[in-house]
Amino acid sequence: MKDLHSKISYLQGLAEGLNLDTTSKEGRILSNILDILDDMAAGIKELQDAQLELEDYVESIDEDLNALEDDFYDEFDDEDSDYENDDIEYMEVECPNCHDIVYFETDLLDNEDEIFEISCPNCDEVVFKTDYDIEESEQD
Ligand SMILES: [Zn+2]
What we know:
Largest sheet: 2 strands, antiparallel
Helix content: 55-70%
Oligomer: single chain
Bound molecules: zinc ion
Distance between the termini: 77 Å
Order of helices and strands: HHEEEEH
């Protein structure tokens, strides 16, 4: 970036050194182009600064998120010592009502003797239910 700016400065210096006739049509165009280039270089520099700031910010969010994840899974470990068992898989479902993401163990689905229903902890909306309806089939 510094490079681009110095190149433009060089061109501007060159135009001055050559006594560019800014009263001629060509001279006026060249001088305007140099001004515009200068503005563009400044604009790009601003964008780059903003971009770097954003990158720093995203990085700090990422670090915070990692810390939160570590805390979250630490808690999991305390609550359920089986969590170390890699066989447990979790399924996530989005609540159709409040759009919270609800997690549950997929192992729970293996039990075919029970109707399996998961409610949103946030709004109590049923977010997942096993397909077969045992109660109904019993009524038949
Ligand atoms: Zn919900």
